[in-house]
Design goal:
226 residues, mainly alpha
């Protein structure tokens, strides 16, 4: 009996040790991945075809946050790993920009301070949403729908003339590619047909509300003044 208990205790300890090592590797990989993505993004900016730059920025940054969050061992670990990945991306992009003699951090943000803070919050939020998509209940569907809506809303914003971050060259190639990949991502994040339908429906509704809201604000139908 004692030998069986000893063997069982050892197996449990070994499993715990493997789990802890896996978490350590995940955190380190998130940090290293963030450095790599940030450096490549800022050093390649302006040196690659425009369509490739439009696909890299900001979708590679968001993709890393999604992967890190979805593969985390727990909510707290998802928060830590995604924060490290996002922070290392921003720091690497800052350093790469300085190496090029520039101060433009457009690859990860729209402004020096507020833009960086917003980028950090957005990336961490996306990572946490990605972790929640591992749930099989309605909350997993909601998280997948919100992730899809964020990507689709950004695509609509960049592809529509007159919108906040409109880029004429983003339509049609990059916009269609990102739109299709966003839908595929939502489908891949859910395991049941019902969950996929709910997630896609939520993504479509939120994206439509965003488009209507921006259109209304630009047309003066909706007041955005404080």
């Amino acid at each position: 009996m004692g030998m069986k208990e000893t063997a069982l205790d050892y197996a449990e300890f070994a499993a715990y040790d493997r789990r802890q090592r896996g978490i350590e590797r995940h955190v380190v990989a998130a940090f290293v991945g963030g450095v790599a993505v940030g450096l490549i993004g800022i050093l390649a900016a302006g040196r690659v075809p425009q369509w490739l730059g439009q696909l890299y920025d900001p979708y590679m940054y968001l993709a890393l946050a999604l992967v890190v969050g979805a593969s985390a061992a727990g909510f707290g670990w998802a928060l830590l790993a995604t924060f490290l990945a996002a922070l290392s991306m921003i720091v690497a992009a800052t350093g790469g920009s300085l190496l090029r003699g520039q101060t433009d951090l457009g690859a990860v943000a729209d402004g020096p301070a507020a833009g960086l803070n917003w980028a950090l919050v957005l990336l961490v939020g996306v990572g946490l949403l990605a972790y929640v998509t591992s749930r099989t209940d309605i909350w997993g569907d909601v998280a997948a729908g919100v992730v899809g809506a964020l990507l689709l809303a950004d695509t609509v914003d960049r592809a529509t003339p007159g919108f906040i971050n409109s880029e004429p060259a983003f339509w049609p190639g990059p916009a269609i590619a990102i739109g299709v990949l966003s839908v595929v991502l939502v489908l891949a994040l859910r395991r049941s047909m019902a969950g996929r339908v709910r997630a896609l429906a939520l993504a479509a509704v939120l994206t439509a509300l965003f488009a209507v809201g921006v259109t209304g604000a630009l047309a003066g139908w909706i007041s955005i003044a404080g």
